[in-house]
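User: I'm putting together a teaching handout on how multi-component assemblies are represented. Below are the sequence lines for each component of a complex, exactly as they appear in our records. Could you produce the 3D structure of the whole assembly as structure tokens, so the students can see both representations side by side? Please keep the chain order the same as the input.
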Amino acid sequence: MQASDFSLPEHADGPGKFSRLERWLAPLVFSEVGPAPMRIVLGNGQGVTPPGVIPRFTVRIRDLRTLMELLLDPEIGFGDAWTEGRIQVTGDLVAFLEAVYASMASAGPSATWYARLVSKWIEFHQANTLEGSRRNIHSHYDIGNDFYRLWLDSQLVYTCAYFPSATATLEEAQNAKLVLVCRKLRLQPGETVVEAGCGWGALALHMARNYGVRVKAFNVSREQIRYARERARQENLHDRVEFVEDDYRNMSGKADVFVSVGMLEHVGAENYTGLGSLIHQVVGDRGRGFLHFIGRSQRGDFSRWIRKRIFPGAHAPSLAESLQVLEPFGYFVHDVEDLRPHYARTLEHWLDRFDKAATQVTGMYGPEFERAWRLYLAGSIAGFRVGTLQLFQIVFAGAKFGSMPWTRADLYRPQEALPEWTPATS
Amino acid sequence: MQASDFSLPEHADGPGKFSRLERWLAPLVFSEVGPAPMRIVLGNGQGVTPPGVIPRFTVRIRDLRTLMELLLDPEIGFGDAWTEGRIQVTGDLVAFLEAVYASMASAGPSATWYARLVSKWIEFHQANTLEGSRRNIHSHYDIGNDFYRLWLDSQLVYTCAYFPSATATLEEAQNAKLVLVCRKLRLQPGETVVEAGCGWGALALHMARNYGVRVKAFNVSREQIRYARERARQENLHDRVEFVEDDYRNMSGKADVFVSVGMLEHVGAENYTGLGSLIHQVVGDRGRGFLHFIGRSQRGDFSRWIRKRIFPGAHAPSLAESLQVLEPFGYFVHDVEDLRPHYARTLEHWLDRFDKAATQVTGMYGPEFERAWRLYLAGSIAGFRVGTLQLFQIVFAGAKFGSMPWTRADLYRPQEALPEWTPATS
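Assistant: Of course. Below is the structure of the complete assembly, with chains in the same order as your input.
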């Protein structure tokens, strides 16, 4: 069968029955993503492979539209088509994405004019204004606490855990992370802490429960704040932790410590100096603080598909870029640690639990939602493994802050036994 | 006595006998350095003090020329005049400089048009070209090994030490620093290391002696290289450590590890991308490296006086600025630590030894040299105490480097007993 070059071919089902146009277009995928070890198969036809590469994965593309979308924007083209079942990948999804990311990283940064346009379009529509941020956060974090309970740890900590050993459980590792954050801040009883973006409140409650500090925690997610307040009441900590349903930009008052875990990703680079100014207004030159965020080794945009479908308005800065929050205000950077392998491991736990709850998720939100979120978790594992994503923890202090310990050895003393935490039932 | 406003007055020796012009000019010093707790006294006259400030120090300015130079450029004006005895300060010099730096820091960045011009002039004349760097380095490090032996530790380590406890001796702390650097790099026997700017060779020899690695170490200081080679021969390490008298820019070959301790200060910000490119050429994406350097919390120039008299061509970058070495080449920043209090302590040890050897130093190079170096050491202590200077250690790795340990706990295990080092006698 010979299709005309000038008419869009119908999808051909038989082996070897795909069009000359498709055969001509398919190799172009490799000029987008580099020589990844995969065979691209159109319909049920024969496949194309980069020259000299032994394929480890087969990517089956259902139709010409899907192929065209992939060529215009590999990120969104793949993400949407995989979610809708128009692309199928044989073999382990994480390993496949890892191979593709590694191939893309070594091929160097590239984006089609179309993809760059899409990126700008997304950026414009998801701008982190006060109203935009509320919408962006709502669309991700207010999906429903029952959903997150299916695959997060019992404390609902939705940020990178810290595995003191490679065999630690997720519950242990999330608790160790809370301890690590508090240790890095060297919290003292009686101090006041302001938290920007508190999730379901685990860190704020942990600080108040174990370090004798008072915490004021901000979040624009209504569902999360509702849950956090309920937990504070159940634990009788509501006189020491105040959960405020508001944007961090509306913070006021003074505190000794500023902390933000997994929030900078939602701030947007254009607001970094504003965030720094706010931190300075709250903790001044005598205070200190902590930033924990997904970063990158080089400046660049967050995945277009992730921004379109999962995290609207998200941006992962390079370390130098993130320092725009601190340097204009003369903050001293005391300690930076990259926990990249810890986030890969955290996400492996999440994906494992998510997979086990797949039927429930599909029942709650439908199969496409389930596939989109599976892809997001798998892609994030791959990103942290390959290193397109990093996880930075920064400890900083004002010029007039008293002093930190001589060394960081105190961070690594054995962990004291902390009061056990009982998951809230509401 | 009433001097005309329009003629330059003669210096008046009697109490209260200084001119109206001088009385009018003196308070302007405070508009340069902020309300520092000092009384400025002209000749033997009465003094001026910032309003509402209780003076802790008296600064005696000998003549109008000195006062004018101070107003035109407080850094060079003070440094040169103090060195030549035209300015005298009562009380502890370090404490005085600390008070002035703190006052200048809170007054905010300012420099007169003249000082800015001087800064540019110095920058131009001390540019770190291949030839310029050689001249810059020669003028500081080739003064004579006997001089440095008077006040450095027995291994001649001329960079920030690491005090595992506040009571460690300088010898212990310099050794602990060498161990810390090697631990942060997780050196493995058989690996190859390239060092840019090796001083008198202590780190290179330490690595070869204790970690079974081969080291190629570069330095343009002839005196230092001569000494380092002699030490390598004495210790029978010359088959494992090669000391090369050459500029880091002339490096070639490949290595597993790049290390540079106290060298970035001499590179110049305009050469950071070049340095990064060189690192990438040597250790590629599979290697790793270490940068240890004097930095700042905000972008700014190194003291003009220090550049003019002590460290020609020096620049201390902010952390974000220093990342220009790494980010363009996709290096992952694994760990950043600020050792600021350690450098203040190191310098206190140096100044203490320097003070004890003051007569010898004066005998070797004259009283003005002795005073200039005492001021440099005292000013550096003050800078690190106040925080106008920081000391950053950065561990980085290429995208394809295998892996670092899960945590940094291994850095803080007790130090094994290392073979004792006997100071070279030559």
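A couple of points students might notice: The two ends of chain A are 63 Å apart (CA to CA). Chain A has 17 helices and eleven strands.
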